[in-house]
Automatic annotation (TrEMBL):
SUPFAM superfamilies on file: ClpP/crotonase (SSF52096)
Alphabetized PANTHER family for the sequence: ENOYL-COA HYDRATASE, POLYKETIDE BIOSYNTHESIS ENOYL-COA HYDRATASE PKSH-RELATED
Record Gene3D superfamilies: 2-enoyl-CoA Hydratase, Chain A, domain 1, Lyase 2-enoyl-coa Hydratase, Chain A, domain 2
Protein name per UniProt: Enoyl-CoA hydratase-related protein
Length: 276
């Protein structure tokens, strides 16, 4: 079990833990939680710290001040411009952009169930972060979009994750037109899974999602998420062979035996009762 109390993170994020649920708040409300390099590094630090911690079953990503994330921090870009000029090289831009992509990939591959609560601005890098969540719940009036091309740049690191989320056809339209759209449209596109009409409904949907996460066996959830990721990249026959081995281990393991017994006895399994 990781000890979050010993983890020193930048104040661009805040951590709250309730039992097996960790909430990671993006905490730069003055800039609509625009993503600075410090924030990117802090998010990576947290996910690296908890990667092997099976006591943390879900990570909730939220933004302070009524916004999720308005994209990259323009102030950081100005600093990079000076750094690149001094170095006589574009490498500072490359390093900054690639670091963001590494963070997005890390969140995407996290063994925990990642839930994104989307309010206000969900733009650029914030849109990318939403696209790597396992469960996305949005306010109806949240504003989504990929504004990069209108700024003369491109959604370099998030593009693959957007395509995986909504498909190439829709991703091309959104990225090339720089469209803005609300939570209802995000639901139709498949960016988000549920939409709430007010704050109370948003909190209720989050609470219901957390309860469902707690009903799922911790190790089975982690193994299932890893298996789902592999379906996109591996040959089917070898993947199914390996999945059969994992199934057998699960059935014969502690969770499989407890889950089966709980079903027969018409009760909650122990992992669901621990936090009742």
């Amino acid at each position: 079990m990781s000890n979050l109390d010993t983890l020193q993170v930048d104040d661009s994020i805040q951590l709250e833990r309730q039992g097996s649920i960790l909430t990671l708040w993006l905490n730069r409300p003055e800039s609509r939680n625009a993503m600075s390099l410090n924030m990117v590094n802090a998010i990576q630090q947290v996910f690296a710290h908890i990667a092997e911690d099976t006591s943390i079953r879900a990570v909730i990503l939220r933004g302070k001040g009524g916004h999720f994330c308005a994209g990259g921090d323009i102030k950081d870009m100005a600093g990079l411009r000076v750094e690149a000029a001094n170095a006589g090289s574009l490498q500072p831009y490359v390093d900054f952009n690639r670091r963001f992509g590494a963070m997005i990939e890390q969140v995407d591959q996290a063994p925990q169930t990642v839930v994104a609560i989307l309010e206000g601005a969900v733009l650029g890098g914030g849109f990318g972060l939403a696209c790597v969540s396992d469960v996305a719940i949005s306010r109806d009036n949240a504003q989504f979009g990929l504004p990069e091309t209108g700024l003369g740049v491109l959604p370099a690191q998030i593009a693959p994750f957007v395509v995986k989320r909504i498909g190439l056809t829709q991703a091309r339209r959104l990225a090339l037109l720089g469209l803005r759209f609300n939570g209802e449209t995000a639901l139709k596109l498949g960016v988000v899974h549920e939409v709430a009409s007010d704050e109370a409904a948003l909190e209720q949907k989050l609470a219901e999602t957390v309860q469902q996460i707690k009903r799922a066996a911790p190790l089975a959830s982690r193994t299932t998420k890893a298996l789902l990721h592999r379906t996109l990249n591996e040959p089917l026959d070898t993947l199914l062979d390996d999945a059969a081995q994992q199934f057998a281990q699960a059935v014969g393991g502690a969770e499989g035996q407890e889950g089966t017994m709980a079903f027969i006895q018409k009760r909650l399994p122990t992992w669901a009762m621990d936090e009742q």
